[in-house]
Amino acid sequence: MKAMQLALSLGLDRRLVIETPLMWIDKAATWAMAHRLGGEALVDLIVEHTHTCYQGDRTHRHAWGYGCGNCPACVLRQKGWEQYRGT
For the whole model, what pTM was predicted? Predict the structure, then answer.
């Protein structure tokens, strides 16, 4: 991201900052941030309307959202959800 920021800044001939707040926190902290910013309504929206599944699976619904449940992205999201919920 730093290289992209530098390339864009040079190309635009002005300073450009790309903010990546989620890049530095784990999935449990991401869920907690969503809850802090928008409460249960935002968490529910994220669970229902987003997914990170590498397979693009929107048929299997888990407590943490849609996904195959087996790919690395699903495993990471599930573990983060479980840490966030304390299960």
Answer: 0.78
- The C-alpha angle 75, 20, 5, rounded to 5 degrees, equals 125
Nearest in space to 62 (alpha carbons), one of 81, 43, 42: 81
Quote helix, strand, coil % in the chain, to nearest 5: 60, 5, 35
Residues of the chain where predicted confidence (pLDDT) is lower than 50:
none
Q: Exposed, middle or buried, 73 (CB in 10 Å: 0-12/13-18/19+)?
A: middle
Residue 33 β-bridge partners:
none
**Alpha carbon distance 14, 50 (integer Å):** 34
